[in-house]
Amino acid sequence: MKGRTTAVLLVAVVALGAMAGVAAADGHLNVSVETDDAEPTVNVTDENGTAVENATVVVSVVDAENESYAGAGEYETDANGTVDLPAPEEDVTVEVTVASGNDTASTTVDLEAPDGLELGVENTDGEPVVTVTDNDTAVENASVNVTTADENASYAGTGDYETDANGTVDLPAAEEDVTVNVTAEYENESVTETVDLEAPDGLELDVENTDGEPVVTVTDNDTAVENASVVVALADDADENASYAGTGDYETDENGTVDLPAAEEDVTVEITAEYENETVSTTVDLTTGEEADEEQPFGLQVREFIESLEDREGGIGAAVSDFVTENNPGNAPDHAGGPGGPDDADDADDEDADAENESDAPGNAPDHAGPNGDDGERGPPDHAGPDGDDDADDEDAEEDDAEEDDAEEDDAEEDDADDEDAEEDDAEEDDEEDEDDEEDEDDEDDGERGPPDHAGGPGGN
Q: Do residues 86 and 39 make contact, with C-beta atoms less than 8 angstroms apart?
């Protein structure tokens, strides 16, 4: 009789299997499978959403040749219209068929094998936390063992532990970088992970804006520390005459920072932070941030001066010229000569000397050749000039008038040449001297008062 019943059930499963994927064959039953937990749950309801009790549930593997599932078989729903299935040991696809009275329904679902016993380690660069789960659920009272991977390494957290209600174990921070093996055991299952633990940074301080108003920041394991003690003092190697208004005791704010005043002069200070029996110090050079103008290139000084000028009527040329004249580091000292300097006077003397030398040039009569020379008897005879001495006086007067005319022309030219370069002025002066010489020569030719043949000189007797 039992064998007959089994045969009838198999025929029914085959018949229902042809309806795979249909949630309700006649619209009166609904079937669904929850897979959120490791153990799947089948839910059967009628068309009104009411749980159906005592409904028949048949579970079969879709690919029976290649897959297996310990939960395959026939079940009956409870008062809640549910059936709890066992967790699969491997991923499998099953078909679930339900029947109640004359109504049937079926669905196909993929069941995933649960992860089983697992452990994870977080915060490996601080105080590590070990978490043990079984099928993604926290496991309480699981055994945890910690050892160093290298037998020569050391770690204060080695030993045996037991997970709390949250499935966790807290380990101490490593004092130095170390690799450990962490093993968890629960209900004859075990899992092991190898983890690299890093020593935390610990208490640290940093100083920014050392050329302005310095800001000290204190951190512990990279986290800002509030109410840490900060002491600022002159460094041991600071100049004996050095001073800094920011020396003293401080306490960090909620951001772990302390604001210090700007240094009035370059100074070296030592800053020490203390927090929870840990201390850290650093030596810092504080500067005023100012650079002397003489250390800047002169071109940069000129540019900064130009940028500081505001728009003004007539332009900025005069102001820039004055600045360059007064501040140019290439200016020569007074004794070095140049326009208006002692060398100018020497140059003027040299010009006078040149003018005198021109009168001594070949062809010019020597001093003693004139009427007032040392050898007066050898002056020009009476017949040498048309008017004798009176002619000489007239010639002197004419020369004086010519010089006065030249002076007036010079004054006019100087008035017109206010904006011309010094080189043009020098050229004009040379031209004026040449004109004077030419006028002198013309006067001498007109007078025909050259020395007679017997007066000696080139070509004379």
A: yes
Residue 318 DSSP SS3: helix
* Dihedral angle, C-alpha 123, 127, 128, 129, nearest 10 °: -100
pLDDT surpassing 90 at residue 448: no
Mean pLDDT highest for which of 137-141, 309-313, 407-411?
A: 137-141
Q: Which residues contact 219 (CB under 8 A, 6 or more apart)?
A: 201, 203, 204, 205, 206, 225, 256
Give the mean pLDDT of the chain: 76
What pLDDT is attached to residue 202? 85
The total of other beta-carbon atoms located within 10 Å of residue 55's CB is 26
Q: Which long-range contacts (CB under 8 A, 24 or more apart) does 255-259 make?
A: 255/217, 255/224, 255/226, 256/217, 256/218, 256/219, 256/224, 256/225, 256/226, 256/228, 257/215, 257/216, 257/217, 257/218, 257/224, 258/215, 258/216, 258/218, 258/230, 259/213, 259/214, 259/215, 259/216
Name the burial class of residue 449, with classes exposed (0-12), middle (13-18) and buried (19+) by CB atoms within 10 angstroms of its CB: buried
* Of the candidate ranges 17-21, 129-133, 227-231, the one whose mean pLDDT is the lowest: 17-21
Q: What is the pLDDT of residue 91?
A: 92
For residues 305 and 324, give the distance between their C-alpha atoms in angstroms, rounded to a whole number. 10
Q: Please tell me the distance from the alpha carbon of residue 389 to that of residue 395, in angstroms, as a whole number.
A: 10
Cα 167 from Cα 139, distance rounded (Å): 5
